[in-house]
Structures are given as C-alpha cells and as structure tokens.
Amino acid sequence: MIGGEQLRTCLAEAWGLTEAAVAAHHGGMNSATWFVTAGDERWVAKAVVPAARRSFRGGLTVAGHVDAAGIPAGAPVPTRHGDAVTDLDGVPLALLRWVDGAALSGRTPDDQRLIGRTLGRVHEVLRHVSVGDTDRFHWLEVQAAHLGVRPWVRSAVATAVAAYEALGPSTLSWGLLHTDPAPEAFRLDPRTGACGLIDWSVAINGPLLYDLASAVMYVGGPQQADCLVEAYLAGGSVSRAEVEHGLPTLLRLRWAVQADYFARRLTIGDLTGIASNEENEKGLADARRWLGVLSRQH
What we know:
The protein is an alpha+beta fold. It has helices spanning about 5-15, 55-70, 110-125, 155-165, 210-220, 225-235, 240-270, 275-295, and strands at about 20-25, 30-40, 40-45, 85-90, 90-95, 100-105, 175, 185-190, 195, 205.
C-alpha cells in the first residue's frame, strides 16, 4: 500500500506539486485512488497493479482523446518528463485531471438520457481514433481455472460466449470502448451542464454494443433502459436494427464478464474496494440470476 508521505514525495518529484494535500479515496475495485489538492486546484492520483501497466497507459491515452474533444474524461497530467505514468516503488501511478460535477445515479429518466447521449458522443469522438497496442476483445477464457469456483459458472460463461460468436461479431460496429460505463462514471457539472465520463482503464477495440450493454446492465436491464437506449441511438454510432439484433446477446456476454470477474475475485480472495467477501458472492449471484433470465429469452 502506498503511504501518504510516499505519494506526496512522488507528486513533488514527478509533477512539481510541492505543497499538495493528499486524501485517500480508494472507491474502486480495481485500483487505488487519492484526492490531491494544491491551492484551488484538484486532481486524482490513481495507481494500478504492475501487471496492468500497459492497459492503464492505453486507457489514459484514450481518455486524452476524449478530453481533447471537449468531453471531460479525467485525462492524465504529463509528468515533468512528459510521461503519462510514473513508477512509485514499481507501482504505476498517474495524476488525472479533476472532472467537476456529481456522479449520476442512473435511476431517473433524465440520468438515463444523459448517460445514453454522453456514451453516444464518446463513441462518435473515438470513431476515427486509433491507439497502438490495444487489448483484444473479448478476454473470456472458458477453460480458465477460476470458472470452476461454482458448478454453474463455466457452462453459463461458455454458453454466452458461444451466443456472441454465433451473432457474427465482424458484422457489428466496432471502435474503442470504455468497457465499464457505470452511472457513477458519468459526472454532471450543474454549473455548465457538461457531462464527463471518467475511469478509463484500458484501450480496447470491440463492438460498441458492449458499452451500451454495460450501461443497460447497470440501470436494471432492458425493461428499465428505454430512455438510455433511445438517447444513445440519437447519436448515430449504431443503427436501431443493430441494437435490436445484437443488444440481447451482448448483454448476456456482459453478464458473463461479471460472472468471470467475481469468480476470479472469489478464487483469489480479492477484497479490493469492498468490506467483505459477501460483496463478491452477491456479484456472482446477480450474474447467475441475469444469465438465467437472458438464456430463457433466447
């Protein structure tokens, strides 16, 4: 764990922030974060495990493109040497621009429309952007050992992957993805009306419907997401016909990713960002329930 004094020393050496105040946040399940202030300015310091270094750099590059297009994205502040990431005792660390506003809840029609519009804008911005050394889509390995954590997990994940492959992935609209556009990643500034999208952790090309499916998943599923989907469609990145044809399958794949994620955490005892293993168990149980519902709809 990075200590506060360690972090302040790094901020001074790498970014020249000699009088920065640091407060631990650690609100995510895959990284460690701190709020950084100096005078009237604010940032977020973010650290990831060393194994995620390449993906982290890629995600920060994508965030930079989104931010440059006028959508606040928590882009990285270059170090004094011009790097997006520095090392702190072997741990990759970045200093991210602060994105003003409050996180959306996704529970109201207005929130859903804003999520859909913003995600559509992001996909349009990234339509012609290419980033070197992107990760592959998808990353599910149906023979992975951790899928044996419960008897049902492997078969449910394999069935979702097979349905996705049968859909014909090459026929879908592809581009750079966020991969996890949860409502709390969208931040609305009430003063300006600007809505940003933060938490870019990877550079990956994939079906745009995967991001849309993620957003739909987080607001409670297709029956709760009409406003979100309609607002997204207005952006024109994906046709209505493609959404109607592919969204149910991509939503099933998204829940398979949830099952894979929580199965892995349970297998290795990962409690990052949570208080107890009960939250990992709940995540896996939610995935089982939704995979069952979606399989019956096919």
